[in-house]
Design a protein that fits this description.
Layout: H1 2-8, H2 51-60, H3 62-73, E1 82-87, E2 92-97, E3 100-101, H4 103-114, E4 119-124, E5 132-135, H5 136-152, E6 160-163, H6 169-181, E7 184-187, H7 194-204, E8 222-223, E9 227-233, E10 241-246, H8 248-261, E11 269-272, H9 279-291, E12 295-299, H10 310-318, E13 322-325, H11 327-333, H12 339-342, E14 351-355, H13 361-371, E15 378-381, E16 417-420, E17 426-427, E18 432-438, E19 448-449, H14 453-461, E20 468-476, E21 482-487, E22 491-494, E23 497-500, H15 501-509, E24 514-524, E25 528-537, H16 545-559, E26 568-571, H17 585-592, H18 608-627
Parallel strand pairs: 4-12, 6-7, 7-9, 11-12, 11-13, 13-14, 14-15, 25-26
Antiparallel strand pairs: 1-2, 3-8, 4-5, 9-10, 10-19, 16-17, 16-18, 18-20, 20-21, 22-23, 24-25
Helix pairs in contact: 2-3, 4-5, 4-6, 4-9, 5-6, 8-9, 17-18
The structure holds 5'-O-[(S)-ethoxy(hydroxy)phosphoryl]adenosine (WTA).
Residues 233, 278-280, 355-358, 380-385, 408, 470-472, 484, 487, 493, 498 line the site of 5'-O-[(S)-ethoxy(hydroxy)phosphoryl]adenosine (WTA).
Length: 628
């Protein structure tokens, strides 16, 4: 269905439709000059010679920094009167107060004024060589038609609309149509199962319908802090949570990070291969590039279709300048011959980006040396659905700055990473690890969890009062660079997909044969992590390890998505527990990492024999699966 609808949007008739008047807003001149050019007089003094100076300004004089950028980079209907009113202790996060704008106008109309026939989207379909280009004018027309369709179906400002489509122009136009009429979109990854989709639709109480409408749609006047979209992501407990992003702050942060992390220039072709159902697709396929008036690629295929040269053939054919992908794909591709890369011309490439999980050194080196011919800086970008945009990353627009493999390096403008120990003390020194928090609010951060502000506070703001807690651990090197060390909670990261172990356990525990279970992430060569399920069977369940594994794999694929299916299911008599009855996950984690000799302090463990049996069972299972 989604594919069928998608095809209609590239119909040639679109270009014959009259241009949509911008209406309310006069678009401003758009320039890709250096960031310092946007700073007010007071802070563009001569000492601002490089990014380090500017970074200092961005955190020490946040209001001046963000105020200047908010004014110069976004087109407003009503100017804001205050830059921010934020208090992380209280959970109050508001940016650009009093300001009114329309996100779709910022992403479309003002560029239609400047260059209507500039290509906004290049839709790279599943089969190579069938790409479709959509200009800014065409995208505006399509967006307006969809906006009118939604209105006619009764969708009103503030209503939630779920979008379940692969990356294609119609999907982008649907997001922008919601933004245009003031509805809130909730894009669901097209790989999710029907049940996951249904959960998200029910939670967001949304509706969807289709087109054939007028190509002009007046933009709604939105307050800076009105909701722009919901995006569901896994948490360490309970059901996935719908993170809420608002209009102005998110858009500004998306545009700014897109410009300065990737050094995006006016005529560049930006190739982010993420699905639009993820935050990476929202920020770096849609909102960042379009707000900057750029040309963005919608990649609908896979890295190995029709062969492992697909990315690089696409780079050659579309002349992509910035390529932004995921470590799991890079690890997969480096196992094939380098010829798959070298046979294609990659001279257009200027920056290579990575996101979603740690980019291990081997993958970094291959990306840098083979793909980028040591010419293109690699930006290992750390951020989250919650942060809205990139928070820690090298900045190639800062010439001469050091970039090291295996780390995200430096905070972006306005981001103040802080490491804390488990007692909540701030760790000031270098060469130290701790819980990664951010000490000041920034415009792109999520504002709440839909329908559950209490959970938002409990998850992000109360663990370390006064700080935003990311859930990740980090190491700060001797030189002050940041290296991510992994999640501190029960979230695992499979090929860049976030998965709460509790979500999987909930499904496993509902199986008739299961008494209890524990789901653990284990290191996987390509996927980064894989799911490993420990199960205690009910008495006389009649199931064996093999029959249960097959059923659980199918069940989890169906209830969540294929990527969530466990690689291993181990049946055991008991799970290791503390004397107070808590499952000792760290013990299971060491076992699945094949580090049974490093189990650590076991004084609270209730049954040592159970652990020995689990270690033996694990060896058997892994060896058996290998030989199979
Ligand atoms: C992990 C994706 C190491 C991290 C944009 C984070 C990373 C979670 C990196 C967010 C990176 C993301 N290095 N780990 N460069 N980027 N992560 O919400 O654990 O899907 O908290 O957002 O992915 O995943 P999410």
């Amino acid at each position: 269905m989604a594919r069928l609808l998608a095809r209609t949007c590239c119909s040639k008739t679109l270009s014959q439709v009259p241009r949509c008047p911008v209406g309310l807003v006069a678009a401003r001149a758009w320039s890709h000059g250096p960031l310092t050019a946007y700073m007010p007089e007071a802070i563009t003094f001569s000492r601002l010679k490089d990014h380090q100076d500017l970074y200092k300004v961005s955190v020490d004089q946040g209001d001046a920094f963000w105020g200047a950028l908010g004014r110069s980079r976004l087109t407003w209907i009503t100017p804001f009167h205050s830059v921010q009113d934020c208090d992380l202790h209280q959970g109050r996060i508001s940016w650009f107060l009093g300001g009114q704008l329309n996100v779709a106008v910022n992403c479309l109309d003002r560029h239609v004024h400047a260059a209507p026939d500039k290509v906004a989207l290049i839709w790279e379909k599943d089969e190579p060589g069938e790409e479709v280009r959509v200009t800014y004018r065409e995208l505006l027309e399509l967006t307006c038609r969809l906006g009118n369709t939604l209105k006619r179906q009764g969708v009103k400002r503030g209503d939630r609309v779920t979008i379940y489509m692969p990356p294609c122009p119609l999907a982008v136009a649907s997001m922008l149509a919601c933004a245009r009429i003031g509805a809130v979109h909730a894009v669901v990854f097209a790989g999710f199962s029907a049940e996951s989709l249904a959960d998200r639709i029910r939670d967001g109480k949304s509706q969807w319908e289709m087109m054939k409408e007028d190509a002009c749609c007046e933009p709604a006047v939105m307050d800076s802090e009105d909701m722009l979209f919901l995006l569901y992501t896994s948490g360490s407990t309970g059901k996935p949570k719908g993170l809420v992003h608002s209009q102005a702050g998110y858009l500004l942060f998306a545009a700014l990070t897109h410009k300065y992390v990737f050094n995006y220039q006016d005529r560049d072709i930006f190739g982010c291969v993420a699905d639009i159902g993820w935050i990476t697709g929202h920020t770096y396929v849609v909102y960042g590039p379009l707000c900057n008036g750029g040309t963005t690629v919608l990649f609908e295929s896979t890295p190995v279709h029709p062969n492992p040269g697909r990315y690089w053939e696409t780079v050659e054919r579309l002349r992509i300048n910035q390529f932004y992908g995921a470590p799991t794909a890079i690890r997969l591709l480096l196992r094939y011959s380098d010829e798959w890369v070298k046979k294609y011309d990659r001279s257009s490439l200027k920056v290579l980006g990575s996101v979603g999980e740690p980019l291990n050194k081997e993958a970094w080196e291959w990306y840098f040396r083979v793909v980028g011919e040591t010419r293109c800086p690699v930006v290992d970008t750390w951020w989250q659905t919650e942060t809205g945009g990139i928070c820690i990353s090298p900045r190639p627009s800062n010439p001469g700055a050091e970039i090291l493999p295996g780390m995200a390096m430096r905070p972006f403008f306005g981001i103040s990473p802080t490491l804390l120990d488990d007692k909540g003390n701030v760790l000031l020194e270098n060469n130290i690890s701790g819980a990664l928090c951010i000490s000041q609010a920034w415009p792109g951060m999520a504002r709440t969890i839909y329908n559950d502000h209490k959970r938002f506070l409990e998850t992000y703001l109360t663990p370390y009062p006064g700080f935003f807690f990311t859930g990740d651990g980090a190491y700060r090197t001797r030189k002050g660079y940041y290296q991510l060390t992994g999640r501190l909670d029960d979230i695992i990261n499979i090929s860049g997909h976030r998965l709460g172990t509790a979500e999987v356990e909930d499904i496993v525990n509902h199986h008739v044969a299961v008494a209890e279970s524990a789901v653990i992430g284990y290191p996987h060569e390509i996927k980064g992590e894989g799911a490993y399920v420990f199960v205690v069977l009910k008495k006389d369940s009649g199931y064996t390890q093999e029959t249960l594994a097959a059923e659980l794999q199918e069940l989890i694929s169906k209830k969540i998505a294929k990527y969530a299916a466990p690689d291993y299911v181990q049946v055991t008599h008991r799970l290791p527990k503390t004397r107070s009855g808590k499952i000792m996950r760290r013990v299971l984690r060491k076992i699945v990492e094949d580090k049974a000799s490093e189990l650590g302090d076991l004084t609270t463990l209730d049954d040592h024999e159970a652990v020995q049996q689990i270690i033996e069972g694990h060896k058997h299972l892994v060896e058996g699966q290998k030989s199979y």
